[in-house]
Design brief:
Radius of gyration: 17 Å
Strand content: 15-25%
Order of helices and strands: EEEHEHHEHEEHEH
Structural class: alpha/beta
Distance between the termini: 24 Å
């Protein structure tokens, strides 16, 4: 897809079994001959939705040969196309939504986007997931879907505590043993949202369930992949992208 094409900046994704709701998403695909087909990648944003830094990450992944579909995670609460600002009010809004959205919504969205990727004319039927912050948790949870071959979770919040979704009792980590694909887990050691005890709980559960995973910690804070943030660590971000590319190319 080229800039200017109708589907380059936004693709409407519908829940195909019932057509009862609509998810808006950004779709970015590699340039090339129309007969080429590529793996699909479900990309989850932070709590601020599809901000410019997230869109640039989507474009980076697409440039490496992936059909990327990034859904708006708060479509139940925000109008289509809404971007939540990087300020205190925006942070409070995004954190409020993550605590009132049913886990079933996140699961249904994952199934919907996976199905949409599988039906995309440029997708070769192989699908992975990647996400940042809440998106890291959602990418990890998306790996419960049997079609997800691999997932990269960047500083996944609320994974160790289960405090995601309405009722704040997500069973994501407890179900780690159901994941068949390979996982890439990336954290900042100075991230207050995933403290050492939380990282240890995640590592121990993945080890206890004998999952196939790799684990990387950087001397960085939360959101160190966000290129508009003072916490941005460009050198670490470059390494992390290489790690993700290695995972997705192998799997």
């Amino acid at each position: 897809m080229q800039p200017g094409d109708p589907d380059y900046d936004r693709e409407d994704v519908r829940h195909r079994p019932s057509n009862s709701f609509r998810i808006d998403a950004k779709c970015v695909a590699p340039e090339g001959e129309s007969r080429s087909r590529y793996p699909g990648l479900l990309l989850y944003s932070e709590i601020f939705q599809l901000t410019p830094p997230i869109r640039r990450l989507a474009t980076q992944f697409a440039s490496h040969g992936f059909v990327v579909l990034a859904p708006e995670i708060y479509h139940e609460h925000e109008p289509a196309g809404s971007i939540i600002p990087y300020d205190e009010e925006g942070k409070a809004r995004g954190n409020r939504y993550k605590k009132i959205t049913p886990i079933s919504t996140f699961d249904n969205d994952a199934a919907t986007v996976v199905e949409s990727l599988l039906q995309h004319p440029l997708c070769n039927g192989i699908v992975g997931a990647v996400g940042f912050c809440i998106g890291g948790h959602l990418a990890f949870r998306a790996a419960l879907h049997p079609r997800i071959r691999a997932a990269a979770a960047f500083y996944a919040t609320d994974l160790h505590s289960g405090t995601l979704g309405a009722g704040e009792n997500a069973d994501t980590l407890a179900r780690a043993g159901e994941i068949n694909g390979e996982l890439l887990m990336i954290f900042g050691r100075q991230d207050p949202h995933v403290p050492p005890a939380g990282r240890r709980a995640i590592y121990d559960q993945l080890s206890a369930t004998d999952r196939r995973f790799s684990w990387h910690e950087f001397n960085a804070s939360h959101a160190f992949m966000r290129d508009e943030d003072p916490r941005y660590q460009p050198a670490a971000a470059k390494i992390c992208m290489a790690l993700a590319m290695d995972l997705f190319r192998r799997m």
